[in-house]
C-alpha cells in the first residue's frame, strides 16, 4: 500500500423523460446512440486493483478497468458509491484531503499517474476536469480560456488568440461570444459558463477530460447542448463522465461502468449494459428499482 502525498454526432431531439420505478432497460436502450464497435480501440487509462481510503473508511475496492482512448465512458451508480472519488484520483485531487491513501495502479498511456515524483501541474494539464457547477474565473471570457496556455507556455499574443478561438469553437461557444471576449465570464448563462469551462480545459491540450455531472445544474436545453458537445469531443479526447441520469449515460457514452458501495459491479459496452446486463443488480439499478 502507498500513502498518498498530502501536499464535461447526431443532435439529441428530445428532452430527457422522467425516470420512475417502472422504467425498463428496454426503454433506456431505445436512446442508446449507435456507435462503431470498439474492439480495436487503444486503452488510454489502465486501472488495476485500485483501492482508496478516507482515514479508516475504504471508499473504493480493487477497481480494475481499461478506459478506451477517444471514447466516452460513463460512471453510474447511486450517490456515495465512489464515482466522483474515482475520477478525482485520476488527476490526484483527493490528495488534498488529509488522511487519504491508496493501493493499486493507474497508468495513462503507460505512464504511472500515481508516482510520487509526478509533476502534478503537468498531470492536471493532461487530465482536465469539468465540475458539476460551472466555475469560471472572475475574469474575461478571453482570459478564462487563455489562463492555462499562458501558465504552461511562453506564447505570443497571436498564438494565444488562436488557442482561444480554437478552444471556444471546439466547445461550440465561439459564435455566441466572439464579439464580447473582454466581458466578464460571470455574465454568461449557466450553460454558456459550463461550455466555457470545457473550452478552458481543452485549451491546454489534455488527453483525458473528466466530467463530474457536467449538466446536472443546467436546464434541459443547455443539457442537450452539453451532451451533443461531449459526443463531438470524443473524436479528439478520452472522456469520463459521472452521471446520475441513466438516459444521459445511454445517449452519450460508448462504455458504462456501474459502481455500488465502492465496488465496480459491471463494466462494458453501453448498449450491452442497457440491453443485456450480466448482473441482476445492474438491471435493477438502471430500471429504477433502487438507487
Sum this structure up briefly.
By secondary structure, the protein is of the alpha/beta class.
Can you offer a commentary on this structure?
Helix 4 packs parallel to helix 7 (190-202), helix 5 crosses helix 7 and helix 7 (190-202) runs parallel beside helix 8 (220-233). This protein has a domain at 69-92 and 119-286: 3-Layer(aba) Sandwich (Rossmann fold), CATH 3.40.50.300. The relative contact order is 0.21. With 291 residues, the chain is α/β, with parallel strands linked by helices. Mean pLDDT is 88; it is low at 1-23. It has helices at 25-29, 83-90, 120-126, 141-152, 157-170, 174-177, 190-202, 220-233, 246-252, 270-275, 280-286, and strands spanning 2-3, 43-54, 57-68, 72-76, 100-108, 111-112, 127-130, 208-212, 238-242, 255-260, 263-269. A hairpin with a 2-residue loop joins strand 10 and strand 11. It contains eleven helices and eleven strands. Strands 7-8-9-4-10-11 form a six-stranded mixed β-sheet, with helices on both faces. Strands 1, 2, 3, 5 and 6 form a five-stranded antiparallel β-sheet that branches.
